[in-house]
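job 3f2a | input accepted
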Amino acid sequence: MTHPDSSIATLMAEAAEAIGRGQNATALQRWQQAVRLDPRHAPALNYLGAHALAQGDGATADDYLTRAVESDPDLAIAHANLSRLHSQRGNASLALQSIDRAIQAEPASWGPHFEKARLMEAAGRSREAATAWGNGLQYMPDAVRNSMQLKPIVDRAAKAVSDNQRQLAEFLDERLQGLRGDSGQRELERINHALDIVTGRRSFVTARPLMVPIPRLPAIPFFHREDYPWTSDVEAAFPDVLRELNSLLATDQDFVPYVQTAPGQPMGQFAALDQSTNWGAYFLWKNGKRIDAHADRCPLTEAAIGRAPQMQVNNRAPVIFFSALKPGTYIPPHNGATNARLTVHLPLIIPPDCGLRVGEETHIWKPGELVLFDDTIRHEAWNRSTQLRVVLIFDIWHPMLTPLERELIAHTIEGIIDFNGENADLGEL
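job 3f2a | predicted structure (429 res):
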């Protein structure tokens, strides 16, 4: 004798196949047969209720859907369908109760959140609607979100969220205006960025060191150069450094590809730049070793950078090089190896349409004005001009590290190199 559960499973499978072929009448028969075998079979009751709802038969829909949620209180789709029925009947309170029960049953399902958003909008509760729209967008898979069929509802949700965030920003700005007083931009920087994150004007970003992370260091995209006395000494040497660079360029000194992936290693996001001088480098120091033939041609540059608190690690640092981006070159987003250091740029040749983005902040280089940033925060750079862009790059110790920490970190990195071998692929460590 065939077990009823087996027969019901077969009937439900046949109903699903019939729906796929557009044979709705056959599907309806299979669901009815399933309910005759098991009057408490919640999925079949839900399908019958949804069918009755679509046909405008509210009484039958109510009967089936009520039985469905009584049989399985966690069947979210049945609660959602019951919410639609209550909404059609003009009972907003019951509609909201049912959709909240659907969300409780399946909180990561985007559909009930969108349904709740529509109910909130109809009730004039725009802020609660925006929250529901936002929750739905958060749980919606990318493939669904990018569907052209759903674009109108996705755009509607995104606009509601954006409008609500704008209103929140205006509300908070007005509320805090008196407290800000005459405070300067530097004084308010952290708070302003926090407000931007809370109101959706920027994303929260953090450091992600790929090799040697140092805990308890704040993730600051750009550091203020005026906070460090040595920066003025380096900037004062800008004319000398630019003159030495121009001498190199005039004599056709070769820049080597900055990206040189070892054979057998994946190229990743730098595939377009691998072995290419579109992103070229002219090293004065590399991996802690002086390139005499190069450094001797740029004595004033070397002397200027010697005034900075350069990172010192045997066989790894200092590193000093001219970085050249040819026209149209793009360096894709990436993270550096360790936040024990900051990367410093001395901009030299800066045509229009060039920039550096670290986290959520975009910086436009100014010739002769140092840029200090944490390269373990996701960053990218570009040259969209028709001219060459060149900056001088070097590393310094993170200014918040103590002398003891610097020494211990240096020995740690040296130990990693000794353990793995000097020729091991350790990225930009």
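job 3f2a | The first helix runs from residue 4 to 20.
job 3f2a | closed
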